[in-house]
Amino acid sequence: MKQEIIPQHIAIIMDGNGRWAKKRHLPRTAGHRKGVQVVEQIIDAAADLGVNVLTLYAFSTENWNRPKTEISMLLRTLHHFLNIKIKKMIKNGVRLRIMGDIDKFPHNVKAALVEAQKKTQRNTRLILNLALNYGSRSEIIQATKKVVQYVSDGIIGVDKIDEDIFSNFLYTKDLPDPDLMIRTSGEMRISNFMLWQLSYAELYFCNKLWPDFNKNDLKEAIAQFQKRERRFGGVHAVKAAH
Predict the structure, then answer these.
(1) Are 228 and 202 in contact (CB under 8 A)?
(2) pLDDT of amino acid 241
(3) Which fold has domain 3-134+177-227?
(4) Domain ranges within the chain, ordered by starting residue
């Protein structure tokens, strides 16, 4: 792995908690608890490696279709994680950002998310971008509505709309697009995740279930990323830049 070619932004679909638990004859909640431990390890590893932005797909809009007991457990775990780890995030220079509609979360969870973002807003070592109640199609539709409203209000003309303008209405408006997207569990799809932002990202699919993923697996994904030629639709390869 070449230290000078570390992806600036890594996005991860953390898949396989339920299957990990099932293989061990444990409740799905056990898989989620183990998965949270891995999240903490990967945050530390990404920061140590020099990654600037780490986006984690933590709760999708489709997750509301899961059993209510599992949803409650996931939200309690998120609330507990924020309360317990906020001091560590501040100490380690991790800034928390949220991507998604958190208004649908219980008041205590939403309040904890807002407070954690406020307390870490000056941190600069790593941006931890959590995708919560997030779906990319919904994000694109909401951005489109905002653009239409701006045109209707005469703020911008239709002829001025381009990729840069549209990107400014997305959750990631002031973040670079992901260079590398990792999905665990062997599934080879992106599941309504950052459809706009992943246009030119390198995709890496790992067979390990998320609770088994570790720092060395992250390094292997980055090593594979460094071997690829990124052309961004052109003819000549573009060297990845840190």
Answers:
(1) yes
(2) 46
(3) Undecaprenyl pyrophosphate synthetase (3.40.1180)
(4) 3-134+177-227
- Exactly one of 17, 44, 48, 63 is catalytic; name it: 63
Q: What is the pTM of this model?
A: 0.93
Active site residue 48: no
DSSP string, 126-155: EEEEEEEEE-HHHHHHHHHHHHHHHHHTTS
* Nearest-angstrom CA–CA distance, 2 and 196: 28
Give the DSSP letter string of 199-215. TT-EEEE--S-GGG--H
Report the C-alpha gap between 78 and 183 in whole angstroms: 21
Look up 15 and say whether it is catalytic: yes
**Beta carbons within 10 angstroms of residue 91's beta carbon:** 9
DSSP-based three-state secondary structure for 122: coil
Contact indicator for 55, 14 with CB cutoff of 8 Å: no
pLDDT in tens, 179-216: 999 999 999 999 999 999 999 999 999 999 999 999 99
Nearest Cα neighbor of 130 from 78, 181, 189, 52 is 78
Q: What are phi and psi of 137, to 5 degrees?
A: -60, -40
